[in-house]
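Final report, Chapter 2: Outcomes

The project's central promise was a pipeline that accepts a single protein chain and returns its three-dimensional structure in a standardized token representation, suitable for archiving and comparison. That pipeline is now operational. To close this chapter, we reproduce one record exactly as it appears in the project archive, with the input sequence first and the structure output second.
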Amino acid sequence: MSENAANNNNIFMEKNQICKEAIVSELQKKKVHLFYCLECEELARNIAAESDHITLQSINWRSFADGFPNLFINNAHQIRGQHVAFLASFSSPAVIFEQISVIYLLPRLFVASFTLVLPFFPTGSFERMEEEGDVATAFTMARIVSNIPISRGGPTSVVIYDIHALQERFYFADQVLPLFETGIPLLTKRLQQIPETEKVIVAFPDDGAWKRFHKLLDQYPTVVCTKVREGDKRIVRLKEGNPTGCHVVIVDDLVQSGGTLIECQKVLAAHGAAKVSAYVTHGVFPNSSWERFTHKNNGVEEAFAYFWITDSCPQTVKSIGNKAPFEVLSLAGSIADALQI
């Protein structure tokens, strides 16, 4: 056999081995039956579209005359011995009880394994434990989740994205296996599409955001802001870094009213930032507070060039639509991958 023929044969064998490994890997993926709450239907469909191994299942979400849930899990017999997941949204106390009722039942239907996907863990985002008598509702919610029954395959896996306070990850008991994921890879992928002529740097609105995310964004120069107290007011100041002439992207885990982001934008612009954008994993925006960020005046340069959020808060995504400067970076692919762990 000639040398060229031998090389071609080796290349063929290597490609053939790669193909075999890819087929084996695909065959080894588990098939997951995904249930979801009503709020998360669009996200659930996007997750299923990411993988042929994910099948959507349905629940009849009904109520009795007194308002209490009247629920029915369809195909309960067919999911025996199968891997099952539930996509939840605890957007308000009013919807938590009905979802917890379903979450507690699914593992008891003789399923092979059970995974709870709760993209946004809502409690604790406002809590400050400063004096005796303050109630830690984040701890209460973690205890509720920690008591999900064990399935035939063992403890429940709980998938959560960018939990607000780092200590909250230790609130969960040993009966569940929390998997803490992040939406930052979606941001870094989007930033790669920004023209190279725009020097992108990352800004953190406070030390808490820096602690959470700086290691995930260490390929970018950083600016750190801080909040200082002046009388009865807390004012944003530039702590370190130089935003002059740069496209500055403020990064945080969530936004509520947006006041801190707006003050941070003003400080960065005052220090010479060419553009300011923002990214948060969880666009909570109570009372439609997102409206203060929209580009209302055609042709007029607005404070934020882009405002990226994920679809962890479905009601916000539905309200915002495609209104500039908002862009939604979907967690669907990341969740589909997490369901294979």
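Archive annotation: Residues 184-330 form a domain with the Rossmann fold fold (CATH 3.40.50.2020).
This record, like all others produced under the grant, will remain available to the consortium after the project formally closes.
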